[in-house]
Structure formats: structure tokens, C-alpha cells
Amino acid sequence: MTTITSSPAIDTRFLSVSKGAPTRLTAISQTLDTPDGPFTILAREDGAVLASGWSADQQTMLERIRPADRPIGTTPGVIAAAEAVVAYYDGELTAIDDVPVAQFGGPFRTHAWTVLRTIAAGRPVTYTEFAAASGRPSAVRAAASACATNAPALFVPCHRVLRTDGSLGGFAWGLDVKRSLLDREAALS
Predict the structure, then answer these.
(1) What gap in Å lies between CA 40 and CA 59, rounded to an integer?
(2) What residues are annotated to the active site?
(3) Residue 38: pLDDT above 80?
(4) pLDDT number for residue 24
(5) Residue 26: which of 83, 56, 65 has the closest Cα?
(6) Containing H/E element for 111?
(7) Phi and psi, residue 42, nearest 5°
């Protein structure tokens, strides 16, 4: 396990925070095939990823976004972030690092999601290390909750956080996908 340190690569202009005003937009959706199964991305018109994960079910993606900020529907389209997914699976692990995302939550969660983007591929951390890096060393459950509610999976790499004993812990998209991602990153890092 490694310690997370602050990274100059984090660009907070890619992070949107909303604390009440509902987002009533139609998201653009795109599903692509990956070695880990279908991967669907929901994004705003400006390209910021709202939700993503290993499912072809757009309703599942919509439900990853808290109700107050959930788009009213989706329309198929081409999303620039899909190119980063293809590049990631082609071995360019950093291709996902600068994809803009839009996350909605309170101060701790939004900070924790920013910290997740500093965890390097091939260098997973524990939930305890993640909580400490997020500024609340005793808030391990809150850190785990930030992982569990992370809507733009892969782009905000919550799969890089493990239990203290090194076991996988949970993952919204299944432990097989989490293990595959970690194995890929370990092999290519």
C-alpha cells in the first residue's frame, strides 16, 4: 500500500458541486464494449461525465446520480470521454486522468472524490489511507461511502481503494471488474 500525496495534476475546474439547485437536463449517453463488459457513460453537453460504469442499462447509470441532480433522461450520442476509455483499455492508464466529471455532494465527499483522482494506477491504497488523505483520518466509513457513491466510475478511480487487509472490499460494478482493473493497472504500471 502507498500513501496518497497531493498532486498538481488535479484540476478542480473539472469538478462541479451542487448543493440544492436541481439539474434538469437530458444527458448524452454512449455505451462501448470493453474487456470487462459494456461500459456506459452519461455526460452533460459540455462533456463532463455525470455517471459511468460497466452496464449497458442507462437507468442504472441515472440511478447513480442523486435524485436532486439526476437528468430527466438520456439521448444517445458520442462522448469525448469514450476515447479515454478506449485508450485506458489499450494500455494508456493515464488517459482517464483529465476527463472532466461533474460530482454532486457535500464538502467532504467532493474533496474525497478529488483525492481519488490522485491515486496512481498500480498503487492502490487502503480505505484508512484514503480517509487520512481526505483530511479525516478517523472517517474511514465516510471515505468508504464516498467510494460507494462515486458516480463517474473509472474516471474517478474508486476501484483503487482496498480494505486494510488488502482484500478488495466492495465495488458497485462487481468484484470481478474491480480485480480486472487492478490487475491491468498493476501489469502496466
Answers:
(1) 11
(2) 158
(3) yes
(4) 64
(5) 65
(6) helix 107-116
(7) -115, 130
Q: How many Cβ atoms sit within 10 Å of the Cβ of residue 8?
A: 6
Helix, strand and coil content of the chain, in percent to the nearest 5, comes to 35, 15, 50
| pTM (2 d.p.) | 0.87
Residue in this structure with the C-alpha cell 501489469, named with its chain if needed: 187
CA of residue 179 relative to chain centroid, distance: 16
d(CA 71, CA 90): 31
Among residues 95, 116, 97, 105, which one has the least CA distance to residue 162?
Answer: 116
| Residues 6 or more apart in contact with residue 189 via CB below 8 angstroms | 93, 120, 121, 122, 123
Question: Do the strands 125-126 and 73-76 form a parallel or antiparallel pair, or are they unpaired?
Answer: unpaired
**Cell numbers representing residue 50 in the block:** 455525470
**Amino acid (one-letter) located at 85:** V
Asked if the model's pLDDT at residue 10 lies above 70, the reply is no
Residue identified by cell 448524452 is 28
Amino acid at 103: Q
The C-alpha cell at 74 is: 438520456
